[in-house]
Design brief:
Blueprint lengths: L2 H7 L21 H15 L9 E9 L2 E8 L12 E7 L4 E8 L4 H18 L1
Antiparallel strand pairs: 1-2, 2-3, 3-4
Helix pairs in contact: 2-3
Length: 127
């Protein structure tokens, strides 16, 4: 194990970059691939520690200064039949604001279709 590999493995999990492939400006946006990336990030959230604010977050895509994140609300206070436990958020680093978001309960076909549309729209907004 090299010094760099050892240093990376010793980082707390919350500071490690997600190992899922992050989408970027150069990549074509194929709906099936986007769905796979969303589901992969969903599975990876289970292995992440909670953040101080009671959430877990994975980055799905970066388009310039626009980032698409998947966040899970993990604290019991967030648990509600009315509030989705998972949120896709389009965040602008340039303005420090949320440009768009959508909540998901179980990532069924309808929710995945909405999520894919959100990511495609995020790329258009970043262009």
């Amino acid at each position: 194990m090299t010094l760099i590999e050892r240093d990376v493995t010793e980082l707390p999990m919350a500071r490690r970059k997600s190992s899922s492939p992050s989408l970027s400006d150069a990549m074509p946006l194929e709906p099936d691939q986007l769905e796979r990336n969303i589901l992969l990030a969903y599975v990876q959230l289970a292995a992440m520690p909670d953040q101080v604010n009671g959430t877990r977050t994975a980055t799905l895509a970066n388009f310039g200064s626009v980032e698409v994140r998947l966040t899970e609300l993990t604290q019991p206070g967030y648990k509600s039949r009315c509030i989705p436990p998972f949120w896709l958020e389009v965040h602008s680093h340039a303005t420090g604001t949320t440009l768009d978001s959508c909540g998901c309960f179980e990532f069924d076909e309808s929710e995945l279709t909405t999520a894919v549309g959100l990511i495609c729209e995020a790329r258009r907004k970043a262009a």
